């Protein structure tokens, strides 16, 4: 049977837009607290901006050279570019319908207002005039465009005001000018006279913008914003200093070609045409916006609002992992038993504590670590520097090509070198995305290796709202494999095989393919055969074809895919045995789980890799087994809880749409709230001196009533 027909696949970019629609649904869901709904809407904007800066920008470049090869769904780059923009236009309409018809009225009902200039009281009008004259006006730079002054460069993601003007008394003397709205001021300005009255910064500027053009009349003023190609084009093979090349490309990136232009609804056709021609943007990429351009301001607005804490999620405190706290001997704990941590329900402090103690422990000889994304004030960076200054051999692979974190990572790479660490920047042509720490320690019985391997970044900030799994172990075979991995990354080494770990490129693809083939053989032999997988995205056509083959052979397949899913369900004789769920909630589902029936002896693996071509072919990724029975059962329980979620889950249907779970006759079960409740129970148990084993399997207990649960969930942008 041919599993590669185009009709069996959904286009990757259109599938991503479907994911952003699911995030948008959370903004429309009245079961969520109001301010969280507002934040969700802001997230859909930041998601879309990044999508256009990278994915649509890539399509634009391919279409510009008439790249002929279609994707797995049969669409050329030009086809995709047009289809993506058409769908994105519809999504923009839905975003602003959500804002104008749902959220703004709901905010007004709570006495929270975003006012227009003609709605202000005399006191508020005087306030904005003074604010403009005293604060804003000195920071504005009007840019006239005429025969001697060309159209200025409009920076990526900046808000601007375009104007048509004429000289006093001469309406035939037509002029054009543009002003950038300064980013140094709050986008929403609090007004006097009420606790939560606000006005948009651009509305203040437009009200008094004529003051900048003495002797001229402003005939029209309209807001606009340009999104540009922000993908980094680093020719690694042609540079001997990757750090300098990245720094140079960061400077060039700001001048990428325009891929989308948003203009204020009601803008005149002549002014829109002038902008489109000057910015060089196609008609299909011009978006008329029925409200404030760039909704990312909404997240900051929620922080400005006072007196409405009840309209946000209740504060959640993660459980601390026994044996991995500040006063514990973390090495003793890990030596006694493997430790599994489930963030953000288990505190990320367990990971940072491991690095902190390693930095000052007399027995530690070396620390080796991969860093893909870290926070702006990372404690891990500090501890690694301390370790180097304490005489440890510290080797850190910093991935300076991590998208949109390049500048942060370049800075930390330089700081680590100054502190005495050996810093490496990965392999030519590959991003290093694996999350791996190796600590080499001298002990009375010899050298022992301690490891942490995870599905998520070593980022203490995102660990509060990304769900990830991590393993701490002293397993000998894994330790040997980890040493070989770092030898590969830092030097010249090609080990013939790994004992327990599997690496991309190639290794993870080959391993998972072999595991699926084994499930196919088991199904045909009448043995137990099933596959359970959880990931962020599923887009690799070869892996999808292999899953289709397994389904056709009778293997039961459960997939939890948060974002992109190019696989289709319900195709007769092809994918009838495949179910796909997607969870969008308070936390960003980020962990990757790969489990197989193995003829009745289930095996389970965690990984940093999604089943995407980039992860399997073009990145250094890690897949590792969970060998201890109690920890494996714990992860299976986590998967089961997620699978039975019927509050935040959407189910992929045969018509390629996602629907909510039919809860008739079912008790509500929100998986993330279940995990939060379990964490809270651990905290209470520890407070009453009744310690529980945090690595015992979860007891699967559906929450009986949403009234007894913390209010649920908020998603973040894609990794």
Textual characterization of the structure:
It catalyses: [phosphate](n) + ATP = [phosphate](n+1) + ADP. α1 (12-28) runs parallel beside α3 (77-109) and α10 (349-360) runs parallel beside α11. The strands form 4 sheets. Strands 14, 18, 19, 20, 21, 23, 24, 25, 26 and 27 form a 10-stranded mixed beta sheet that branches. Strands 10, 11, 12, 13, 15, 16, 17 and 22 form an 8-stranded mixed beta sheet that branches. Residues 234-240 and 698-719 have low confidence and may be disordered. The chain has 719 residues and is an alpha/beta fold. The chain is built from 18 helices and 27 strands. It starts with 11 loop residues before the first helix and ends in a 32-residue tail after the last helix. Helix content is 36%, strand content 21%.
A few lines on this structure:
With 719 residues, the protein is an alpha/beta fold. Helices cover 36% and strands 21% of the residues.
List keywords for this structure.
ten-stranded mixed sheet, alpha/beta, eight-stranded mixed sheet, 719 residues
Mean pLDDT rating? 91
How many E strands? 27
Structural class: alpha/beta
What's the total helix number? 18
- The end-to-end span amounts to 35 Å
What about the largest sheet? Answer: 10 strands, mixed
Give the DSSP E fraction (strand runs of 2 or more residues).
15-25%
Write down the Rg. 27 Å
Low-pLDDT segments = 234-240, 698-719
Approximately how much helix is present in the residues?
Answer: 25-40%
Shape descriptor reads globular
Enzyme class: transferase
Cofactor: Mg(2+)
Binding site for Mg(2+): 373, 403
Function: Catalyzes the reversible transfer of the terminal phosphate of ATP to form a long-chain polyphosphate (polyP).
């Amino acid at each position: 049977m041919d599993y590669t027909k185009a009709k069996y696949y959904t286009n990757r970019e259109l599938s991503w837009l479907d994911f952003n629609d699911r995030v948008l649904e959370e903004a429309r869901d009245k079961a969520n607290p109001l301010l969280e709904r507002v934040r969700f809407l802001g997230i859909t904007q930041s998601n879309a901006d990044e999508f256009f800066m990278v994915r649509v920008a890539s399509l634009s470049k391919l279409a510009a050279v008439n790249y002929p090869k279609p994707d797995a769904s049969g669409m050329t780059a030009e086809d995709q570019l047009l289809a993506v923009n058409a769908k994105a236009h519809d999504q923009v309409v839905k975003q602003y319908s959500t804002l104008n018809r749902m959220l703004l009225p709901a905010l007004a009902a709570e006495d929270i207002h975003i006012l227009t200039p003609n709605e202000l009281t005399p006191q508020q009008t005087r306030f904005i005039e003074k604010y403009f004259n005293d604060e804003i006006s000195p920071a504005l730079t009007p840019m006239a465009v005429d025969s001697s002054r060309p159209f200025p460069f409009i920076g990526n993601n900046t808000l601007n005001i375009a104007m048509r003007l004429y000289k006093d008394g001469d309406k035939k003397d037509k002029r054009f000018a543009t002003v950038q709205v300064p980013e140094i001021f709050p986008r929403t300005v609090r007004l006097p006279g009420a606790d939560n009255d606000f006005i948009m910064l651009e509305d203040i500027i437009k009200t008094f913008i004529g003051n900048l053009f003495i002797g001229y009349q402003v005939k029209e003023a309209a807001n606009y914003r340009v999104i540009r190609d922000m993908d980094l084009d680093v020719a690694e093979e042609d540079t001997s200093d990757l750090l300098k090349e990245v720094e140079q490309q960061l400077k060039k990136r700001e001048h990428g070609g325009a891929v989308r232009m948003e203009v204020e609804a009601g803008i005149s056709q002549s002014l829109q045409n002038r902008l489109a021609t000057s910015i060089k943007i196609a008609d299909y990429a011009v978006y008329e916006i029925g409200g404030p351009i760039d909704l990312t301001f909404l997240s900051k607005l929620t922080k400005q609002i006072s007196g409405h804490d009840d309209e946000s999620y209740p504060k959640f405190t993660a459980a601390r992992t026994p044996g991995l706290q500040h006063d514990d001997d973390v090495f003793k704990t890990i030596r006694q038993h493997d430790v599994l941590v489930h963030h953000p329900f288990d505190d990320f402090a367990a990971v940072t504590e491991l690095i902190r103690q390693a930095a000052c422990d007399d027995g530690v000889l070396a620390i080796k670590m991969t860093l893909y994304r870290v926070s702006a004030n990372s404690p891990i960076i500090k501890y690694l520097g301390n370790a180097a200054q304490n005489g440890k051999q510290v080797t850190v692979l910093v991935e300076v090509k991590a998208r949109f974190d390049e500048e942060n990572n370049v800075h930390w790479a330089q700081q680590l070198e100054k502190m005495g660490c050996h810093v490496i920047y990965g392999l030519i042509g590959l991003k290093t995305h694996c999350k791996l720490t190796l600590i080499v320690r001298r002990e009375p019985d010899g050298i022992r290796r301690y490891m942490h391997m995870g599905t998520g970044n070593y980022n203490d900030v995102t660990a509060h709202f990304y769900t990830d799994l991590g393993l701490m172990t002293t397993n000998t075979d894994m330790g040997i494999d980890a040493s070989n991995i770092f030898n590969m990354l830092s030097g010249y080494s090609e080990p013939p095989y790994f004992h327990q770990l599997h690496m991309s490129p190639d290794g993870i693809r080959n391993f998972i393919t072999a595991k699926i083939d084994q499930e196919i053989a088991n199904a045909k032999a009448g043995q137990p055969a099933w596959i359970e997988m959880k990931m962020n995205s599923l887009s690799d056509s070869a892996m999808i074809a292999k899953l289709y083959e397994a389904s056709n052979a009778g293997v039961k397949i459960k997939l939890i895919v948060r974002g992109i899913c190019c696989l289709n369900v319900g195709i007769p004789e092809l994918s009838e045995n495949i179910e796909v769920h997607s969870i969008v909630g308070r936390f960003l589902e980020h962990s990757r789980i790969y489990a197989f029936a193995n003829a009745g002896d289930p095996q389970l693996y965690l990984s940093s890799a999604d089943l995407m071509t980039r992860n399997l072919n073009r990145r250094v990724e890690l897949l590792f087994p969970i060998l201890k029975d109690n920890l494996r059962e714990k992860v299976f329980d986590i998967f089961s809880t997620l699978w039975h979620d019927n509050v935040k889950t959407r189910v992929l249907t045969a018509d390629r749409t996602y629907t909510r779970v039919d809860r008739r006759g079912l008790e509500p079960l929100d998986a993330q709230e279940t995990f939060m409740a379990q964490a809270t129970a651990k905290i209470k148990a520890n407070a009453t001196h009744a310690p529980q084993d945090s690595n015992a399997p979860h007891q699967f207990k559906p929450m009986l009533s949403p009234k007894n649960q913390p209010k649920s969930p908020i998603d973040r942008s894609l990794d």
